Amino acid sequence: MTLGLDPEVTTRDLDNPAGRRFRELLEDEPYVFAPGIYHALDARLAEMAGHQAVYMSGYSTVLGQFGFPDLEMVTMTEMVENGKRIAEATSLPVIADCDTGYGGVHNVRRAVREYEKAGVAAVHIEDQTSPKRCGHIAGKQIVSREEARSRFEAAVDAKQSEDTVVIARTDAYGSANGDWAEHLERGRIYADAGVDLVWPEMPDPSREDAIEYAETIHETHPELDLAFNYSSSFAWSEEEDPLTFEELGDMGYRYIFITLFGLHSGAHAAFEDMKALTEEGERAQFDLEDRYLGHETESHHELSFVPHYQDVESRFDPEARERIEGSAGFAEGEEAPLTSDDGERQEEPPMPGAETDD
Fold this sequence. Notes:
The chain is about 45% helix and about 10% strand. It is of the alpha/beta class.
């Protein structure tokens, strides 16, 4: 007996302007760079600083949001929720870590669609076994070619917007059951499966490997765009001749990212200031103020768009403007942060219903 129901009822035609913008950047720019981040504020700061895109790093998310290592200890819904928060905080395209797709082909398909609904521009999925691990933690292993191909074909087929970008990552080189030849062949297989970019994860910052991979795979797939992890696991500054973003772009690595840039930047700064607090007390706060007063990041009220929300409140609440103007605190056009010289002591207003002298 058939029920007359459409089994594709969960499928929607979605518009993905962020994906469309990311595709335009890939087409028009020598390369697209995205700093790795893990929360909404860093996305906003990246946009303020002039970046073209941001990358929701998996390791950054699980460490920064949960305090875990990158061993697939966070669920698909938790990752998607973080992607949604980031996408809602910026107009930049967001590229998001989708790990292994969180299960079989049905899980992969659902993960792609959940990320699309969250507003991300692109997802990357890898060919490791599950539970996966950071590409630079020992013990990684890849699934068979057949399983990996089906994973990526399912991801591409699941897209509800043609503008959504699917990136295939291979961890064959440096895995327990792979090698360099498999690394190259996996890239070809995934390109033939219909993905938009191939990301060959490298075990070290070798210039020679990056060049050889790009040259070799472009012999059979000359139009294939590649992604490159300028990994935070590597000491690039200690290389004799470190790769540059421009060089990578010229090789065909059109999407370049630093996985944990925001986390390392924030952790270093926060630790140094926290340490100063333990040693210097309030002087550490004074020193921090010396650095951020007058800086673009000075006002947390401006960063969170308080003037906009006050305007919205005033539009829909007739008494809001009067309350804003008649109380202490930040309002658009006023200096912030406050000092004790910003105004006279406010007299206590009469309680509602209390009698007053005329």
